[in-house]
Amino acid sequence: MNTEKVTARRLTAEEVAELGPQDGIFVSAGTEGLPLDCYAPAFLTGPGKSFEGGSFVARTAFGEEIHVLPDNAEESGIWIADKQGEEIEVLQSAGVLLNLALFVPNGNKESLDSLYSAARDAFGVGIVQRWSEEVAEVPDVKVDLYEEPVRGRKSANSQNRDRRALDIYPTRVRFLEPSDGWKFIVEPHKEIVDDTPTI
Fold it and tell me: pLDDT tens for residues 31-69?
């Protein structure tokens, strides 16, 4: 296990209530069915003062959501970095799991195997692994992708409309996420025709 020693101090529920989502904390690194005797970097999912009943919700750097009662002596509690504190073991990242969408023109098994082999050659045989693979035919049609405010008007000429991407295949739209408070509008692609008179 890749861990690092960090000097930290355990917080009381009153102290946690004064924290915000931007404050870095440490919570138990244990996941369901896998108890770990160390901690994980985390953040509160909302301002500490917004939680009621003394139970706080934190999301670790590894995507786990944990409910914590800081004053419960039977739980590992919530910790914050403090030079005057004690040493705790903090779980470090082993790497990044990359969910990658690859578009292979006229893709077939040979070209996908070539990509896989090239990635293993570049990063190492033990590094690159195929966890799951979905091969989907991509229709030869393109769309225009716009963003509009969620509560915006449906006028095509709305000034709130923002061209997010052009000439995108519909199957790739599902890998994108709209900005906060915005939604995607997908329309058939229209070529931009410049009808400016020329001399």
Answer: 766 778 899 999 999 999 999 877 899 999 988 899 999
Amino acid letter for position 88: I
| Distance (Å, whole) CA 124 – CA 44 | 37
Provide DSSP, 122-164. Answer: HH-TTT---------PPPS--EEEEEEETT----TT-TT-EEE
C-alpha triplet 166, 172, 178: angle, nearest 5°: 70
Residue ranges in the chain assigned as alpha helix (H): 13-16, 109-123, 170-173
- Predicted confidence (pLDDT) per residue in 72-119, tens digit: 999 999 999 999 999 999 999 877 777 777 777 777 788 888 888 998
Q: What is the amino acid identity at position 74? A: E
**Identity of the amino acid at 4:** E
